[in-house]
Amino acid sequence: MARAGLLCLVLLALAVSAQALTPSHHLTASDVARLEARLGQPFTDLQSAYFSIVGLSKLGVTVADADDACRFLTSNLDPTNIESLFFAAESSQALSGCEIPVSNETRDLLLAAVSEDSTVSQIYQAVGALSALGLPLASQEVVSALSARITKEDSVLGIINALQTAARLSQQAELGSILEEIEDLAARLDDLGGLFLQFEEGLEATALFVSSAYALSDHMDMEPPLKEDQVIQLVNSIFSKKSWDSLSEAFSVACAAAALSNNRFHVPVIVSAQGPATVSHSQPVLQLQVTDVLCQPLVSASVLVESASSVASKSVILSKAPFALRDGVFELNFMDSQPASGYYQFAVAVTGDSRLIANHVELKVKVSTEVAITNMDLSVVDKDQSIGTKTTRVDYPSKAKNSFIADSHQNFAMSFQLVDVNTGVELTPHQVFVRLHNQKTGQEVVFVAEPDNKNVYKFELDTAERKSEFDSMSGTYALYLMVGDATLQNPILWNVADVVLRFLEEEAPATIQPKTLYVPKPEIKHLFREPEKRPPTVVSNTFTALVLSPFLLLLILWFKLGANIANLSLSPSTVLFHLGHAAMLGLMYVYWTHLDMFQTLKYLAIIGSLTFLAGNRMLAQKAVKRVEGK
């Protein structure tokens, strides 16, 4: 048993691994337009200008007025603030002819920020500003400062900033230790159901990690330590969100999309049908869109159908057939293979570039057709064969001229065939029904028509056996044939003929019951249990006397013992104590009749506190008097 269980687990793992993971989310053309609109909002400060200008440049778009944007950068620049210098310098790089003035004090400020005493974010902004302004810097010193700060901060965003910084340094510097941080960060990603990878910090951190990892890998010409499935899971995570909460989030998505669509190592492929994945004799061409995650067509790629097999029969219809590129869309005339109607599984391969990943995809394609009804024969068959059977043929879409009459001694029969209009091949759609509709009462009875081994559909109605389904309701019924299937372009509802059904009169119901559920239901009357009889008055009075007898006994005993109230003082504490004690007894009665537990506890806390203080004071006074008396 243990070996069998282990074998099942191994087979399951092999089956899962055999199913190549493909991107389930990407940016469509409308998503890209919405992202551009989000990034194209008016500037409010230098940070928003940086997100808009640089973010649009990642999408291959420039701002509407570059000169006005440059004036905004220079007018809002604070030369004594590193963050302000970073935003202005980076933004100016995306604008043609925009220069940021640099003084010696600005250069010294930026160089001084590159130290172990600064945070990783400050080092990144200083290096970014120096690089954008074209100022020299010692790359190895930056690496040393970054390495020292990473050991102290060790946060996801901090390491991402370190990757972004290293991508701006000289290739001669020792950047290997920074590149290794990509693998460490990848180990921190959370796997969500095998489809998504993301950081706990959210979408922005995940997208910036992707863009910075590929930026540094391209800069060092070394493939990032990311597996193909990890890249696809990151793609699903980043592009599953179609609306962005902030400008910075939209900026990070634009950076990730640009990195994934243009790098030296991994370019995920998006293969989708243009419109519905359906072909027919009237529309024989299957059209595929092959794009990157930015919805840009991969026109240099080659698309090949490795195999196209029927889902029902598993037989291969087509193999090793190339798609032709036309106006950015890959086309294949699948109907040249003369497939029968139904569903087909396509295995498509996209080649032509070693960087392509997720380039083996499977698509389900539907082949649609039109159905025709032939050899429709109607007849009334006598059960004892005493009368010869007369068959009437009806051509679609006409209706039989005469009605057919059947009583309890006869059966009504119908036979027909369904064929493909284009090929003449016999069809067996999923849904073939015969409906009988009583136009007078609105009653409907539906039967399923089944084909025989020669694919001839036959339906026979035995009025005697089926009388319960009609409620023995005689009358004229309209006979309809209904044919439907997901692969049919022309589902059919055909009024074939009128059939008069006659049941025995004694079996017919007295009144015609409407066939509807929406009628008032009989009123449900509940019978509650009658209250039990009260006990006799004598019993009640006797029980009350027994309850009060201990109190009477107490008074008698007090009288015999000589109890008196001579020593009862009338001081305020004594009076308050006895009143409080009486109030608590009264509260118990009120709790029984009116209050709930929480209300009672609230009042008891107030009365009990006063009674406790008064009793304590009363006992203290008695103790003093007793001492004085001695």
Low-confidence stretches: 1-18, 506-512
The dominant shape is flat
Main sheet characteristics: 5 strands, mixed
Compute the average pLDDT.
Answer: 86
Number of helices: 16
Structural class: alpha+beta
Give a written overview of the molecule.
With about 625 residues, this protein is of the alpha+beta class. Helices cover about 40% and strands about 20% of the residues. The protein has a five-stranded mixed sheet, with no helix packed on it. Strands 15-14-17-21-20 form a five-stranded antiparallel sheet, with no helix packed on it. Strand 18 and strand 19 (about 445-450) form a beta hairpin. Helix 6 packs antiparallel against helix 7 and helix 8 runs antiparallel to helix 9 (about 155-165). The termini are far apart.
